Amino acid sequence: MFTGLIEAIGSVSKIERRGASTRIAFGSPWGLTEIKAGDSISVNGACLTVVGVDGKTFTANVSNETIARTTLGELKPTDPVNLERPLTPADRLGGHLVLGHVDGMATITERREDGGSITITFRAPENLLLYIVEKGSVAIDGISLTVNECKGNEFSVTIIPLTSERTIIGHKRVGNKVNVETDIIGKYVQRFLSAQQREERPSKSGLDMDFLAKHGFK
């Protein structure tokens, strides 16, 4: 489990295609004493398992499922990546609960700078937008961000200068794709309500205010 607070920017050192999976080596600021085989590392928001460490380079296997669902399949040697190690019991939860299980990808449609900050708008598929709400949390390439606005098939976030400096988001441009993980709490709420709808069918359209109030959503 992660917080969405990126610890460092690493880079792709080597990519090997191996049948049903891809092995990628990443350069990082952490050495042998800080990470080991079996550890989990969030790379651009995708939770990967370390299979080997050599100095300050770690290697991870990336399955075809992860390649299909994330932007990791588009990485090239020397590309920068966001890195975060897992949350420990003693850490402060400064972002939000991020599992490192990427739900899908979104595409940048607008990038606007304003007073040092950057407002970025993304176009996302409907299955992601279902869980993205105004002032809610979303992880973009592993970065915990607050949603400014949702409109149609798009949503926007604001990137403060510190986040732009310490992550790769500041270098993204219109047309670039990003990994998106929606809020886990929203997923569970939607699943619970969907199950209740099937059992009780409160209205032709599904949810209504009486149904929500009955189940504690006021």
Structural account:
The protein has a domain at 8-84: Elongation Factor Tu (Ef-tu), domain 3 (Beta Barrel). Helices cover 18% and strands 39% of the residues. It has helices at residues 64-69, 126-129, 161-166, 184-200, 209-214, and strands spanning 8-18, 21-27, 40-43, 46-54, 57-63, 80-84, 104-114, 117-123, 137-140, 143-151, 154-159, 177-182. The strands form two sheets. It has a six-stranded antiparallel beta barrel with strand order 1-2-5-4-3-6. It has a six-stranded antiparallel β-barrel with strand order 7-8-11-10-9-12. Strand 9 (137-140) and strand 10 (143-151) form a beta hairpin. The protein is globular and about 60 Å long.
CATH topology term of the domain at 8-84:
Elongation Factor Tu (Ef-tu), domain 3
* CATH architecture label name of the domain at 8-84: Beta Barrel
Instruction: Assign a percent range to the helix content.
Output: 10-25%
Q: How are strands sequenced across the largest beta sheet?
A: 1-2-5-4-3-6
Helix and strand run: EEEEEHEEEHEEEHEHH
Separate helix tally = 5
CATH structural class of the domain at 8-84 = Mainly Beta
Structural class: alpha+beta
Radius of gyration: 19 Å
Annotation, overall tally of beta strands: 12
N- to C-terminal distance: 30 Å
Strand content: 35-45%
Shape label: globular
**Mean pLDDT rating:** 89
Largest sheet: 6 strands, antiparallel, barrel
Low-confidence region ranges: none
